[in-house]
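Notes from the pairing session

We agreed to fold both candidates in a single pass and log them together. This is the raw record for the first candidate, unedited. Please don't reformat it; downstream parsing expects exactly this layout.

Candidate A
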Amino acid sequence: MIKEKTLRIGFIGCGKMAQALAKGFIASGITRSENIIGSSPRIDSMFIEEFSAIGCSTTHENAQVVEQADVIIVATKPPLVPKVLTEINPVVNSDNLIVSIAMGIPLINLEQRKMLYIDAAKENKSHPCNAKYACTVLVRSGASVFSCGTSTRSEDATLTKRLFTAVGLCEEVPEVLIDACTGLSGSGPAYMYIAMEALADGGVKMGIPRDLAYKLSAQTLIGAAKMVLETGRHPGALKDDVCSPAGSTIQAVYFLEKSGFRSSLMEAVQAATLKSKQTGRKE
């Protein structure tokens, strides 16, 4: 088993997703910056500079990432995944754990694209997992899920969960739920940022200074989330606790219900889920 302090992590793609995960891994102590390497094409020099600023090594060669890492995280845009897999296949070895965070790419596609290339000895060269996470891993409050490929070993699942638990909540799920989790927790922070901004705007409309309004709205979301996670109570029951008879909160909840707030969020998750599924089919 690889020790956390010596865990070498490689990112194929140095964009915002990779940067958030790298910063989260470093902040959590799962590994050190000098044990992380990332690659991006020369045209993406800005990403290379930003990744280097974290203290990580960088390269323009994807194969070099595989050669220098134990865990390789594929963090490219979905259309680039086939090209990347073909490129790194010759240097992948039996000890590599490959984790794809590209939206909508099914595990079977990863396997068919030779991520699970079978050599003459009929031994798997790599062990893929498909992971989805929220950008909040940067502050170690991510909500991640992952599914394992057909040849993934138990220690691979353990390592994947250890990695993503270091930057937040992480659960293993059947692959059939991956796209839905993308729609819920992967895209979810964007929904909450809109809600936070709208709450703050409402406060400003009623006379609260802008800076204070943002602080109050952000802390309100944090507090509500912690109540659900730490008490284990149903969100509806917690909502009922806040709604006093004939009070201001129940009046506001009535307005939200009448305005379609609940159904809008449900449909947002559905829309993001369907987009993720469509992306996978196109690949």
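Candidate B (folded immediately after A)
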Amino acid sequence: MAAEEAEEQQRRRGWDPGRSFRLGAAANFFSTLATFPLHKTMFRQQLHATSIREAGRQLRQEGLRQFCRGLLPPLLAKTLQGTLLFGSYETFLHLLFPSGSHSWGQQATAGLLSGLSEGLVLGPFERVQNVLQDGQKARRFPTARSILEEFRSYGGLRERLALGYYRGLGLILLRNGLGSALYFSAKDPLRDRLREKGLPARLPALLSGCITGTAIGLLLYPLGVLIANIQAQVGSGEALGLRGALHAVWMARGGRAALLYRGASLLVLRSGLSWGLTTAMHDFLQDIT
């Protein structure tokens, strides 16, 4: 229906891969600015298992300048993420399934490949961001440049990648691939169902993004906790294997599964806002350009 009409309009215009990349970049740029405060508070909860009140108190004590520490990497990364995520999704969908309306499985396949591509490109951005946002490493690594210099100091290329830029890559690929597959296969059908309810023009896309992003975020949240803790480690002295990292995170949460979801309340709000705004903005730009 609505999704099929959009595909038909795109076929009439001719496929323009550059347009998909541009729309994704713009949508993610604005949603990242809007949700950064929630993201930073949630990250503190993920890393130190603190309450929302305690995380907020820490950030207030650190001041505005310290609060903005770590904004540039996610802003660059999220803008690039939107560029890659939406652009590569449309590219894979067009190349692998060039004609006809696309099934759930085809959308999920293109989404999976898009998520894997995104993880490979953006892994280093997330790595630097997670170190910057760890308040315990602020003196040791005051800037992104100091972190990159640390990574470059590692012996060979393998160490620089495994211990430095791409620490936790396997988990990132798992999270991004699965998350993107679920997002792209679910958002349009849900949006079309909501449109049938007679909701105002832009509300279905906003709600679709909110619901889909929140559900995926909750499903993958424990994986995000593990990634945040693994990527906050710097140097071979701190580096733990997957089993060691799992044990450390589990013990830090007092052996309670519920504490693995510390920060999840903010995740619901941030993921809902972020993916809702991104989805609505992307659909809006797609309609007017």
